[in-house]
Amino acid sequence: MGLSIRAAAGGEFAVDDATLGQLRSSLSGTVLLPGTPRYDVARTVWNAMIDRSPALIVQCASADDVSAAVRFAADHGLVVAVRGGGHNIAGSAVCDGGLMIDLSPMKAVRVDARRRTAWVEPGVTLGEFDAEAQKDGLATPLGINSTTGVAGLTLGGGFGWLSRRLGLTIDNLREAEVVLASGTRVRASEREHPDLFWAIRGGGGNFGIVTGFEFQLHAIGPEVLSGLVVHPLSAARDVLRFYRDFVTSTPEEFVCWFVLRQAPPLPFLAPEWHGKEILGLAICYSGDLAEGERVSRPLRAFGNPIADVVAPHPYAGWQQALDPLLTAGARNYWKSHDFRELSDGLIDVFVNAAGRIPDPQTEIAFAQLGGAVGRVPTDATAYTHRDAQFVVNIHGRWADPAKDAACTRWVRDLFNAATPFATGGVYVNFLTQEEGDRVQAAYGSNYGRLAQLKTQYDPANLFCGNQNIRPGAAPAATAV
User: Fold this and answer.
1) Collapsing DSSP states into helix, strand and coil, what is residue 64?
2) SS3 368
3) pLDDT of res. 10
4) Beta 173-179 vs 209-216: how paired, if at all?
5) pTM of the prediction?
6) Which residues contact 191 (CB under 8 A, 6 or more apart)?
7) Residue 219 clears pLDDT 60, i.e. is over it
8) Distance CA 425, CA 264 (A)
9) CA dihedral 212, 214, 215, 221 (to 10 degrees)
10) Would you place residue 473 in the very low, low, confident or very high pLDDT band (cuts 50, 70, 90)?
11) H/E stretch holding 113
12) What's the chain's average pLDDT?
């Protein structure tokens, strides 16, 4: 008896029962094999277009388990995937035929309200982190979907409603515990292994498996001024031109993203608008509520919106407001660009494409950055595109596999139409599994240093189930 497993070098080989027994005995967590209870649940990730079957899954209960799993993979030359929240669009959390290291059972969040820090394990989701930190009126910048994993979000950079005021998620990372390709555990911070600390702040999972993050927390909420202002698509050009000019002078506590899509059956929209193309402005002001009302008033008053539900909401609740539109189990295909400005030509590209959206779940999501994000030097972290003022996620999303071709074609066509207006940079967490050729674009002039550090920390490329930075002293990519 034994298990057929995929080797990183290609081909398959058998792992006998005795070897599997030794692995099990080294763990406080669980080993799942195909056909065993919970295996299919553990291998299922957020994006339904990803359907892969590992030869075995190690569900880790501790950092020691992670070290044991990494050593097992290295000793046997296995293909490795690492799962945190399982939310990555490219499906990097799961592999075919190899070893999946599942961190989702590692759920501890320890908040130190006096120091305003939190220690967070890698299986924690954004919603779980927010819930613990908000007990003390604290938060750190995270993303916008509460089911996203903290680990993957952080390793790629991380941005959301608080980023204009407080920076990226990585800008609030104080230190991390990392399991290296040798299985060794180290601390990475500005004081210890500073080069590794630099690399994991944006470099993804290329350099090791992070088993604990210490974040700086900030006083937020408990309420923020937040909500949607909705316009018909016919008004989108005028509204977006006003929006573009308006946001250049707003304080950093204010952020407004927008979305172009078909209106879901939201209770605050009249039924005649359900299924019609709309522009939604998503506003969040994280400072004084009265000041937020004053700052946001001109944008909310412009034109003739069909709905305005901006009001004080619990911060943790606003962090979950978009969850119903981003549930697991749909088919998802994304393309993304960075922009320094929102020009008339780009507005036309978006509005024209919005009139041809191929599925009610598909959307054009446009995020506002700037502020504190741009005050960090481009070479201070692996994440380099600090000059981007906006990021678009062309979010193809649908349920029926028969629509795969039409929906992916719409996403690609819009991506190509927007390319002349883009910086050439891209947010690494938005890259799909087919976009390995854009990894250098994600890191720009920082890529050469990342490749050198990859050679130092993972010369055999054990951690290759990601947007991969290959070992080697690669020349620096052209800055974009």
Assistant:
1) helix
2) strand
3) 74
4) antiparallel
5) 0.95
6) none
7) yes
8) 31
9) 80
10) low
11) none
12) 96
